[in-house]
Design the sequence.
């Protein structure tokens, strides 16, 4: 005879496995600090690449205006503004990425804990039915 509770648990587990289960298993293999640090480092890399590309495009598109009136003081000012802008953007992204990836890891761990709890309950139901 089919147990309704067993069917409900199996349905929940199947839905979880098909939606986010595989990704949560990958995330769950990391410690929270390792997962957050690695993805924050990747974010720093991509923010740096994006900033360099945008800065290069801005310089190339305004090359005539820059070369006409360029003095050493203006050049130093532009470099300071560019570096300051980069640092502000980088700090904002690092803080945001750290928070985002820590929350993502916490959510994955919580869902995995529920999945393993359901797996344990399912095992107990099978033992009970086999007697």
Sequence:
């Amino acid at each position: 005879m089919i147990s309704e509770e067993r069917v409900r648990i199996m349905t929940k587990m199947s839905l979880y496995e098909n939606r986010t289960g595989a990704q949560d298993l990958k995330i769950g293999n990391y410690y929270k600090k390792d997962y957050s640090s690695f993805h924050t480092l990747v974010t720093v890399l991509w923010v740096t690449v994006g900033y360099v590309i945008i800065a290069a495009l801005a310089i190339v598109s305004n090359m005539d205006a820059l070369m006409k009136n360029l003095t050493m003081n203006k050049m130093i000012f532009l470099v300071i503004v560019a570096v300051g802008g980069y640092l502000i953007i980088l700090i904002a992204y690092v803080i945001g990425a750290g928070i985002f990836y820590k929350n993502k890891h916490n959510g994955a761990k919580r869902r995995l804990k529920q999945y393993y709890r359901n797996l344990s309950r399912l095992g107990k139901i099978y033992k009970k039915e086999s007697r």
Summary: The mean pLDDT is 93. The radius of gyration is 26 Å.
